[in-house]
Specification:
- By secondary structure, this protein is α/β, with parallel strands linked by helices.
- Among the domains are: about 1-80, no CATH class; about 460-538, no CATH class.
- Helix content is about 30%, strand content about 15%.
- The chain has 15 helices and 19 strands.
- Strands 1-13-12-11-14-10 form a six-stranded mixed β-sheet. Strands 2-16-15-19-17-18 form a six-stranded mixed β-sheet, with no helix packed on it.
- Helix 1 runs antiparallel to helix 2 (about 25-60) and helix 6 crosses helix 9.
- The two termini are about 35 Å apart.
Length: about 550
């Protein structure tokens, strides 16, 4: 419509010029304006044809990444960033929006072994699970790694397995008699329940799904939207695995893959058999050698390289730039260690829940990598390694992790523990003149150089205030989404707007950086979860 108005306006000006002057200059003006109008009309027709071609290509499931479905190249095609020399296979995405938070306390190698005596599996780690699942063991029972501990009454076919062998020493309950955690005192020597894994080259999908549900592998899969364990009948349009993490103090995945290359590839092969689409692998393109050989040489997958600041490593960002979630779509995501666990089951017939965990934060005496198992006791992992003072322990990273107690347990999908100062002390005139260095996107606070590392605390430096439009969210979220408008749609319970503004594409970790930069100090992650729960039940 705008193009039509512009064309009519130019034609009107041409006629006006013609009526006011009869000399040769006016003739040239008329010819020039006519030529411009003609070019605009042709351009509009070609643009319409290109859009129609892209729509038809999307309907037929054709890959736009490999094929240019357009009459002529667009500006994005003409000014695409050049692939680095080490990117020899797959697509390349250079992201500009985002922000890296450099903190003190990054983990250092090599991987150490620590003595952990207790492990726990927590139903609260799974969205949508009934608060009182059916527990299949009793206190005092002896279990092996891979034995079933409980199942969801809503999905009884999905079994949740013990990460270690040992004795069930406690079944802790929360509010209204809900099951909070099943605690196991581990054996010194691990023993495993033996399973007979099917041949993925011959097995049908239904049998494969039934096996993965029965042996505890199924909960390793996360389904978007809503971040739930998928139903047995769900077939994902795509599966995404991110092989790197850009969150503050995040673990280096190259340490995780060392020695597990075969299991990782086997896990990918299993995932290929579960989707009607493709398995997409997100690779680290922030520098040569960042991506481990086990990731680069992976087979039967689509590879996509990403460079840029955090959240460039988030799987949600990869989905958005490769194959965005459409209405009705189900997309599965997994971490590297979850893929390795699946691969080990199909190689050895055992549930191996080993985890490389980064113990990080400035309040540790020795930040390090440790080898343990899923759901390890945090007290055992950081024993004798934490500084005196008022500290906060987080299962995960500082942006999207969950605050926990020292005597708590590692989250089901977490591979990081962060210990930072509790920021419950007021800073004199901190609102006027920051007296201590702190990470910030604001130009009013010195950056102290790109390589400077901050010793941050949990102080938000302000209270919740009016929801102002600042454009800060868009500057750190590399997605074609307007997060501020989305948050307001959630708060006003406008379901149609929530869905239209891209709620289904987001999860807490995607919006965590927006919460960090929020001038209004709004709890965006909890607001987002509120919106997802509303959309799920609508």
């Amino acid at each position: 419509m705008n193009k039509l108005v512009l064309t009519m306006s130019l034609t009107f000006l041409a006629n006006l010029a013609s009526s006011q002057s009869k000399d040769s200059d006016s003739d040239l003006l008329i010819y020039g304006l006519t030529a411009v109008c003609l070019v605009l009309v042709i351009w509009a027709m070609l643009a319409l044809a290109s859009n129609l071609m892209k729509i038809e290509a999307a309907k037929n499931g054709l890959d736009e990444e490999k094929n240019n479905f357009s009459v002529f190249p667009g500006l994005n095609d003409l000014f695409k960033p050049k692939k680095p020399s080490f990117v020899t296979e797959g697509s390349f995405h250079k992201l500009k929006s985002g922000f890296d938070i450099n903190l003190e306390g990054s983990a250092k190698g090599p991987v150490q072994t620590v003595q952990v005596t207790r492990y726990a599996l927590k139903p609260t780690d799974f969205f949508g699970m009934s608060p009182i699942p059916k527990v299949t063991v009793e206190v005092g029972a002896e279990v092996k790694a891979g034995d079933i501990l409980f199942f969801d009454k809503k999905k009884p076919e999905v079994q949740y397995a013990s990460p270690v062998s040992g004795e069930v020493v406690d079944i802790l309950r929360g509010e209204k008699r809900s099951i909070a955690q099943v605690v196991i005192l581990s054996d010194k020597k691990m023993s495993y329940t033996k399973y007979t894994a099917p041949d993925i080259q011959k097995v049908d999908r239904e049998t494969l799904v039934a096996f993965m549900m029965s042996c505890g592998l199924w909960p390793l899969i996360n389904e978007r939207p809503y971040d739930v364990v998928p139903a047995a009948t769900t077939i994902p349009v795509n599966i995404f695995v991110s092989t790197f993490d850009t969150a503050p103090l995040a673990p280096d995945s190259s340490l995780i893959i060392q020695g597990n290359e075969t299991a990782f590839q086997k896990g990918l092969d299993v995932l290929v058999a579960l989707t009607s689409g493709k398995v997409h692998l997100g690779l680290d393109a922030r520098g040569a050698g960042k991506a481990a050989a086990g990731f680069v040489q992976a087979k039967n997958v689509e590879k996509h390289w990403f460079s840029g600041p955090h959240p460039a490593g988030n799987v949600g960002v990869h989905i958005h730039h490769v194959a965005p979630i459409k209405t009705g779509d189900k997309v599965w995501t997994l971490g590297v260690q979850e893929v390795v666990t699946i691969g080990q089951m199909f190689l050895k017939g055992e549930y191996h829940a080993e985890r490389i965990v980064a113990i990080t934060g400035a309040e540790l005496l020795e930040p390090k990598y440790v080898k343990t198992y899923q759901g390890a006791s945090i007290a055992d992992l950081i024993k004798g390694n934490i500084k005196e003072g008022n500290n906060r322990v987080i299962s995960g990273d500082v942006l999207s992790g969950k605050q926990t107690e020292v005597n708590g347990f590692l989250g089901f999908r977490d591979d990081q523990i962060t210990v930072v100062k509790e920021g419950n002390e007021y800073e004199l005139f901190g609102w006027l003149l920051p007296l201590a260095p702190r990470p910030s996107i604001s130009g009013t606070i010195p950056s102290f150089g790109k390589d400077h590392k901050f010793e941050a605390n949990t102080n938000t430096h302000g209270e919740k205030r009016a929801f102002v439009v600042s454009g800060q969210y868009e500057s750190v979220l590399p997605m074609d989404i307007y997060p501020q408008h989305l948050m307001k749609a959630i708060l006003t319970n406008n379901i149609e707007k929530m869905e239209g503004l891209g709620l289904a594409e987001l999860t807490e970790e995607d919006i965590a950086l927006c919460e960090f930069v929020c001038t209004s100090k709004n709890p965006l992650q909890s607001i987002l979860r509120q919106g997802l729960e509303t959309l799920k039940t609508s």
